[in-house]
Amino acid sequence: MDAADRDAIAEAVRRAELQTAGEIVVVIERAASSYRNIPVVMALTLALFVPWPLLSLTAMSAQRIFMIQLFCAALLLAGLLWYGRGGRFVPGFVKRRRAHEAALREFTARGLARTKGRTGVLLYIALQERYAEILADTGIDGLVEQDTWGGIIEPLLAAAREDRLTEGLIKAVDGVGAVLAQHVPPVPGDVDELPNKVILL
Questions:
Q1: How many domains does the chain have?
Q2: Is 50 helix (H, G, I), strand (E, B) or coil?
Q3: Which of 3, 23, 125, 157 registers the highest number of CB atoms within 10 A of its CB?
Q4: Phi–psi pair at 78, nearest 5 degrees
Q5: Shared domain check, 97 and 76
Q6: What separation in angstroms does the CA of 178 have from each of 72, 125, 146, 184, 193?
Q7: Number of separate helices (H) and strands (E) present in the chain
Q8: Residues 49, 137 within the same domain
Q9: Domain containing 161: what range?
């Protein structure tokens, strides 16, 4: 995503916020987690099985078998770390949980819980996980059905899969803005509390 794309999304945020007292923040994260612990757990688990055939089929000493086990664990770990880049071995539910946790962290880190009317909305997308989520603060969350947010997220994910992320994000921002305009219209003296720029991590 280049500067022109980021500027186009920021402009969409600015336009959307003209119609509402709410605040919209867009966060794009390359990956919600490094998942380095997954290959470690897999390598150590697989290495646990190494001694059994050696114990039953050979007369090797326990010390020698242990050294072979350590070597196999190191070899497995190196292979899994290299081949498993990008979370290849990570189950989908783990990716979704990590991405959701990352979205919650970003919601707090970006000051969305400190807006005047508690009407901040985070539009979060984790590219590696192909995950997107809308998190709304207490001033708006109870007013909007989750299906409404889902109706914005699904086209965004479809656009991302088709390599049309910028277009998808602009439409998603427009959708969030329309929802906010319906529930928290602009009020006199309202100020833009949070930056409109896209946060790219």
A1: 2
A2: coil
A3: 23
A4: -60, -45
A5: no
A6: 57, 20, 15, 10, 19
A7: 8, 4
A8: no
A9: 3-34+91-200
Kindly state the average pLDDT of the residues 72-88: 79
SS3 label, residue 125: strand
User: Does residue 50 sit in the same domain as residue 98?
Assistant: no
- Are residues 12 and 108 located together in one domain of the fold? yes
- Please give the Cα distance from 191 to 186 (Å, whole number): 10
pLDDT at 187: 87
Q: What is the pTM of this model?
A: 0.81
Q: Is the pLDDT of residue 161 over 80?
A: yes
107: CATH: 3.10.310.50
Tell me: the pLDDT tens digits for 96-136?
A: 999 999 999 999 999 999 998 899 999 999 999 999 999 99
**Exposure of 54 in the CB half-sphere (CA atoms within 13 A):** 16
* β-sheet with 131-136: strand ranges across: 131-136, 120-126, 23-29, 199-200
3-class DSSP state of 170: helix
Burial class (CB in 10 A: 0-12, 13-18, 19+), 112: buried
Query: Please, which contacts does 103-112 make with residues 24 or more away whose CB atoms are closer than 8 Å?
Result: 103/27, 103/32, 103/133, 103/135, 104/135, 106/27, 106/29, 106/199, 106/201, 107/135, 107/137, 110/25, 110/27, 110/194, 110/199, 111/193, 111/194, 112/23, 112/25, 112/137, 112/194
> 143: which residues sit within 8 A by CB, 6+ positions away?
183
